[in-house]
């Protein structure tokens, strides 16, 4: 504004120094990123070598692996640029309107590189899940009709090779296809469990916070009991019991059965059980957060102010309280999906989750678990890697969301 | 021989959005035992000046980029961290605005004062505790033995601030810097604390640098006053002269905006405009966009402090 | 203070009774006759009936509820269905192993994570900070059992640096060699979370005013960080460590299964499959008891660390 006067020399100098400093830092950041990436790949290579030294790394195969890694890198680069470009368009859309809280949050999120990578991973998973049939090299492993029994019997438990990029499973199915189709299970299970658990948690939490007093105390004790139970253990017990007990939900006065436990169990090859167990028990976290948020917001002065101005209860709840409550819940849900994936894997590993024939990452580890000490550790390595990457993605994204939504953090 | 001589101090903060020139060519002196006040709006650089003297500016992003601070024959800007640490709390002490957040909540006040004494005077714990009780008595706390074993949250605001003062003065420093010591307290307590500070200044001959935005506090306590705006000192004089005959337009504006109980129903006078952006400060005199007497030379270059007689300095071309 | 502790202990018992009831109901509701499962091939109705009689399974439910409860409270443990032993003995044989594993895992992870967190907070955005952050992200994302399997592959199968299995003597060379990999597996997740939490807590504390006061007193950075900042940052860390305990228990079960570590967790899993009620009930209660106890200890520790916590609180 008043800057069209002759600038003082010292300010010039400072601006120049500043610019140089900024460029240097940018460059340093990029170098750091490159180093991290390279060391990640190197680490991966080392572990990979240790897993099996004999079968795969002959000279011919090495070039295949390089080729594959290149493909992956190109994919990541393309996708990343795509994200950057879409950010630019989002910018235009957002800046059309007045700067409000959403805009600030969005900008904070964009700055967070890890969160963008997380978003990338999640989008990849989503694409894989939705277009699984198109993208996987072999047809759906869950559906046995797709496979020629002769072929599968000949190719049991193969190490990675030209035809089966990640090897084959115990049943002769292609590992890569298993992983791709498994992503469906992970995503679907994660989303549905979290959705249900959140709804339960929000409801109960709101009730507890709203009707404080002995209702609150009772609900708290119930929550304590649920939390004192080691989570995994409880689910194991529940699942193993529901597996065998027969409960049927009937339309009253008729013989028509809506749903009963054997059917429930066989749905999705046992995963429906997992869904139920996780959803019914996972509301603890949401409950606490919702209750805490509502309680603290209730006491805040702006609620009093709103009441003093004559706002109705409903307006207070929807306009003032809910926005404060929603943000942490969104974060919890995102991070919770990661938790669901982990728990499903753990359950399947112990044999209590997905049943025979289900296509899930946990199940793949279960089927491969005897081979961990042998030279076929691949069967365990790849599904686990898939799990690690997806959880990293969800966690980074969730953290980025949390940082963006919390106005107090200055990082 | 002034106790402390700040010459041409410049402190900048290097941030993502640009370089904040928080303190720009600030110079003043304090004699031993003298009480000086530093006055100005929020954001004018008073706290940064104080922190610069203590060398407590957080290094990224801030840095003292120029000037000298002569104390006891040494230039504080050039000292090593170790030497600076000996001075902090020992020769120069500082107290802060909100005693609730300035005292560590998990230690008793006695322990915190003991710590300072043990550090600078090398005493055993029992001897240090004796000294602590002594200084607590001096800040007029009844029952010092009992209070020393209390935690900060168990004391009232006034008592906490007294404990802060006790902690700062426990090693008999030569200069006490008080950054808005009474802003967080209510008025009656404020009066007590100010009186206490006055009393201690006389008894211990500790010089005082009082930083505040409250002109009333300055008028009551200080012998010498400097007015800061936008990182510069714009006027400096002894208290009486400043209040009776302010020269700088900004000072006049400040004093003029104090509502008077005498005249009824007057509109509050304000200084139009708002505080300058210290990343891109206005060229020339930093006050010129808001100044009613602004002329051409004001926009071009920044005025230095000029002696208009009697130790009264003004930085203005008028 | 005393009322607070008593109240908490009372609450603890309520929770335990609740847990017991739920477990009891679950066991009852579960079909699968322990007698039949125990007999296996040599199954015949009369033998089954005898067994059921012996095990008191034919009594009405409330009687069973009461008897089992009484025996647990008086520590006169019933006998396991599967093994011919007193559940008490079974547990006593296995509990030390599980505790050993748990203690080493928690100890090592805390010893690594907390300093890492403090250093990361102090040297914010430096190399150490970034490495810690990335490492903890990966640590959280890795499934416990998968990590165990991978560790087995690398360190046992390929390199042969450590051993696997259940040691006879815990505090021996053999014991430590066998406990290392499981402890690393179990401790990783917890270390990751603790490190991040310590870091963020320290970051928050370092910004507080009283840290500035401490510096203004002339204290060295080391003292400022380690004494003044750390004590304050410890609070949320302690809480979360306490909260992590149920997860540790779950993780211990998995880890024991992966490594063949004959501890309580392994016993638990196999008992569920065999419907060995006494063992199930006792072990579950034991786990729940451990969790509640840890929570109580955490609560009490809280009041030691932070003098602001009053025992007679108005809210909560």
Notes on the structure:
The complex is a heterotrimer of chains A (411), B (318) and C (316). By secondary structure, chain A is mainly alpha-helical. Chain A has helices at 9-51, 59-96, 101-111, 113-130, 132-135, 149-154, 175-210, 214-228, 231-242, 261-266, 271-281, 283-299, 301-309, 313-350, 361-368, 378-405; strands at 248-250, 257-260. In chain A, 73% of the residues lie in helices and 2% in strands. In chain A, helix 4 (113-130) packs across helix 16 (378-405), helix 9 packs across helix 11 and helix 15 (361-368) packs antiparallel against helix 16 (378-405). In chain B, the strands form 2 sheets. Chain B has an 8-stranded mixed sheet with strand order 6-7-8-3-9-10-12-11, with helices on both faces. Chain B has a 4-stranded antiparallel sheet with strand order 2-1-4-5, covered by helices on one side. In chain B, a hairpin with a 2-residue loop joins strand 1 (4-15) and strand 2 (18-30). The longest helix of chain B has 18 residues, at 187-204. The mean pLDDT of chain B is 82. In chain C, helix 1 packs antiparallel against helix 12, helix 5 packs across helix 8 and helix 10 (221-259) packs antiparallel against helix 12. Chain C is mainly α. Chain C is globular and about 85 Å long. Chain C starts with a helix and ends in an 11-residue tail after the last helix. Classes of the chains: A mainly alpha (411), B alpha/beta (318), C mainly alpha (316). Chain B binds chain C through residues 54, 56, 85-90, 93-94, 96, 98, 101-107, 115-116, 119-120, 151, 153, 164, 167, and chain C through 208-210, 212-220, 228, 231-232, 305-308.
Secondary-structure element string of chain C: HHHHHHHHHHHH
Assembly form of the protein = heterotrimer
The biggest sheet of chain A amounts to: 2 strands, antiparallel
Please report the total strand number of chain A as a whole number: 2
Helix proportion of chain A = over 70%
Q: Helix/strand/pairing class of chain A, anyone?
A: mainly alpha
The structure class of chain C reads mainly alpha
Portion of residues in beta strands of chain A equals: under 5%
